[in-house]
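Here is the promised in-class demo. Please do not try to memorize the tokens; focus on the logic of going from shape to residues.
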């Protein structure tokens, strides 16, 4: 019994000293839980402004002059190509399908003022007669779908296409020397401007980058074809002309996603 007393004392001392020893030991920090960074999503509305240029590719052809073929076949065709500044607004909605693909729909309205003036009654009288012809373009609008592929969560390549509208006007001014004495009123020049809003199709593509703060910046190109517009200009004689109409548009856009 006397031999057990020292052993019991040793164990008691060890038990009493254990909390102090544990308090002096370094404490391991709890594991940190990292929250994943938010992934950029393209689903939602966006509205923006665009600045760029519109290149009009227009060829006019005189079909008849007073019911007969034009008297100057060499001048029967005339180019009315123009380049103009173009500014617009656009509104769209995108659906991100997965990590790489999205589809969307977009509409826009833009203004550009361009006019090509020719000092000849194209197809009827050469330069120097006092006659002239003009073709002008002003506003355009469109409604398109788009299909995009995400190279990374914030960089998009896309194709776009749909329906496009463009406003055109054409002017013929026939001087007395070119048109003869039958103009109305007699002995005076005759000038007429015809207007039309043509519906056509468009296709194009671009690249868009999502910036901090959900801003979107894009570069885009579109081609639009409006077919052939045939227009009649009165007076004496009556002139019938056709115009093949197409445009190329290049723009920079800045939009806010919301």
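The designed amino acids, position by position:
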């Amino acid at each position: 019994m006397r031999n057990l007393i020292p052993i019991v004392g040793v164990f008691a001392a060890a038990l009493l000293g254990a909390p102090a020893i544990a308090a002096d030991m370094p404490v391991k920090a709890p594991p940190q839980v990292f929250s994943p960074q938010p992934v950029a999503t393209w689903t939602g509305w966006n509205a923006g402004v665009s600045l760029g240029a519109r290149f009009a590719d227009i060829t006019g052809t005189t079909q008849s002059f007073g019911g007969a073929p034009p008297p100057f076949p060499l001048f029967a065709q005339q180019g009315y190509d123009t380049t103009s500044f173009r500014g617009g607004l656009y509104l769209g909605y995108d659906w991100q399908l997965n990590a790489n693909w999205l589809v969307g729909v977009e509409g826009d309205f833009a203004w550009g003022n361009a006019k090509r003036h020719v000092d000849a009654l194209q197809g009827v009288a050469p330069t120097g007669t006092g006659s002239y012809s003009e073709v002008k373009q002003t506003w355009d609008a469109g409604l398109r779908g788009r299909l995009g592929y995400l190279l990374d969560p914030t960089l998009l390549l896309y194709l776009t296409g749909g329906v496009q509208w463009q406003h055109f006007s054409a002017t013929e001014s026939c001087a007395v020397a070119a048109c003869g004495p039958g103009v109305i009123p007699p002995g005076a020049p005759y000038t007429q401007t015809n207007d039309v809003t043509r519906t056509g199709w468009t296709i194009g593509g671009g690249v868009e980058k999502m910036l901090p703060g959900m801003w979107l910046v894009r570069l885009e190109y579109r081609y639009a074809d409006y077919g052939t517009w045939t227009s009649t200009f009165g007076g004496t004689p009556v002139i019938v002309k056709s115009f093949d109409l197409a445009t190329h548009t290049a723009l920079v856009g800045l939009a806010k996603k919301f």
